[in-house]
Description:
By secondary structure, the chain is mostly helical. It is 62% helix and 5% strand. The chain contains 36 helices and 9 strands. The strands form 3 sheets. Strands 4-5-6-1-7 form a 5-stranded parallel β-sheet. Strands 2-3 form a two-stranded antiparallel ribbon. A two-stranded antiparallel ribbon has the order 8-9. Strand 8 (477-479) and strand 9 form a beta hairpin. The termini are far apart.
Amino acid sequence: MPIDDEDFEIQISDDRKLQLFTDRHEFTRRFAFYLNEDQPREQILYFFGDGGNGKSLLLKHLEFHCCKRFPPQVWQQLRALPEAKAAEVADFVWHAKPKTYTPIPVVRHDFGLIPIKEDKPQDRFYGLLMLRRNIAESAKKYKFKLPNYDFACFWYLLNKGESEATLNQLFPNDLIDFLTPVVETFAGFPVVSQVAAGLKLIDKFGGIKRTMKLIQTRLGVSDETADEIRRKDIDTELIDCLPKLFAGDLNAAMASRNKPDRLVMLFDTHEKMWDEKRNSQGATFWYQDEWFRRLLRALDYKLGIVVAVAGRDCPVTQLRWPNASKFPIPEDYIDAQLVWHLSPPDARDYLHKVEIDKADLADAVIKYASVNPDESCEDLQVHPFYLGLCADVVLAERRRGIELLASDFARIPKLENKTAELMDRLLLYVDREVRSAVHSLSACRAFDEDLYVKLGAGCHFQASSANFEVLTGFSFVWKSEKRGDNWYRIHDLLRRLDCDRDNPKTRRAHEVLEGHYREVGDAAEAIFHANRLDWERGVKEWKEVFDKALRLSRYGECELLLGVRDELWIKSDFRLGMISKSEGDYYAWLARYVEARQEYLEAVAAYNSALLIAPDDINALNNKGNALQSLGDLQAKLSEFEAAKQSYFEAIAALNSALLIVPDDIDVFKNKGIALKCLGNLQAQLSEFEAAKLSYSEAIAAYNSALFIAPDYINALNNKGNALRVLGKLQARLSEFEVAKQSYFEAIAALNSALLIAPDAIAFLRKMRYNNSSV
């Protein structure tokens, strides 16, 4: 039950690391039980453990080697084997001949993929669409239909009108082919490429309602469901319902006659849902993967849907899924499996696969790569990442004609130094050009051979195809999926090592890459590298470029900048607050209210952290006030009136605290006036007229204080005029006509003063025209 009341073929990866997969027999056996038992298990299989322990490789192994369902008689023999013989079960599953089993459709969703255009794996809208396309591709034979979810997505895009993606990028090809006649019928010509443009043309030529009705009919969505979807607010209700609609349709597909016995859904690098926000608490923490929990809760596992997740943290004790304030996942539904280190026999098996067979050398390497080298041989816990680096060291020397001895691994460094020492040893044994390339490429978020050649020219190492092949053969170099063919990335542990050491070759690579991306016009990547060279310069530029792009409605540019935001170094709470405030403004502008609220709350929390260290920090107090005012505006828009008033009061309090320290700061006075005016607007909306008049009067007083210090402060003049205008409007509404006229006259006078300073300010002229018409 849900927690809420062409032929499929396995494509074997050519990734050498997958072929060297070692151990994890108990996990393969456990996964086989999920796929082959008569009664599907109603649990989420969750693999957790430290970075470098091979969780991602385990998921790939399960995807490519283990999604198999065996005939009942074969499975009964396998399940009868005791747990002590897990290796036999795992070996049989791995190497079973194609005609001896039924392949199970499998889809893998990696939260850690770099967002590219509309492929945003962590996003609650586009992440689900990625999953939708992947399921359609993985289970072609079964032609899964998700009608209610698809209808809701079309309705969402119709109302947002923000996407620049092509329909084929957003939806599976079979769905687009199915709906093409609808658009052609109403638009009069073939489907146009852009979603927003296409929907506008539909509206012009055929009418949105008629088009959506025909789409509804083609998809087979009931009138009741379609009406329910259309009634929902798209930003506060519909967007949150999409995971449940998705799961409901998938459940229906798995309950139909033409369906597989099992459907496997693999989710990798779950920890990437947090990144820089891992230290957040309570609702802020749980919000990060809320849409994912909604999806997992709504899936009906008894129908044969098998979900396996990989992440660093235990979902019960660290992520605390059962205690989530919203959409918790009970512990009974979680099968948490710790992915620990390798045993010595399994480490020896790995070394055998890479042709390191000398017993004494293998024993020394295993001890060196262990996290507990002082224990007895049978109790050693071998770290997979260290083991791979050790093998790289041995093989690098072998290519030079030198066989390392056990004595070369006799001195064992402390665990915290092991990564650095192994990397240093490896690079000592490789060609100088390869050594330089590794340090340079660790600056890249991802690289291909062209970028490698570019770095070779800029960082002064010899880039060759032969060396590139050597580089991509190391255990710490992985393919970078979704960046296209032949893109790679250096393991994060090694990238972090070069950063911590401030390696001069890596710094030079950042300089080259910043220049390269500025030359090709990729501002987001350029800012990432600028941030690595000077974190504060990069953060400042990110905010400036992001705010400008938002001001000019260049939302695609904003999305690209958000794609690198989680990898920025932000080494002060004050700067973190500024970034979060800008993100909140972006989401609020696009009416993505849940995300906007989250970012505003994080901005306030960041400023509070800064004020704990420096209680008299004027900038932190001023910016905290602005963030609270924006939060209040959002809450007022969502009719959360008491919460909005509280946010406005807290904003005014923060700004008053700043004025106690600097009584002559005109910007703080201006911001206080804005917060008071917003509070007055809310009070007037709630018919709290006397309180509203008082708030407007205090706002005008704040602007007057700023103008007393700086009479030509144009922003204060403009805002004072605006506050007098809304005060006059309220007074007129209360039939206080004489004082209303006086307020309007004073508003016009303030705006006239602004125009004397800035004659070309069109905004002021428009406000004056409005004031005159009101009078």
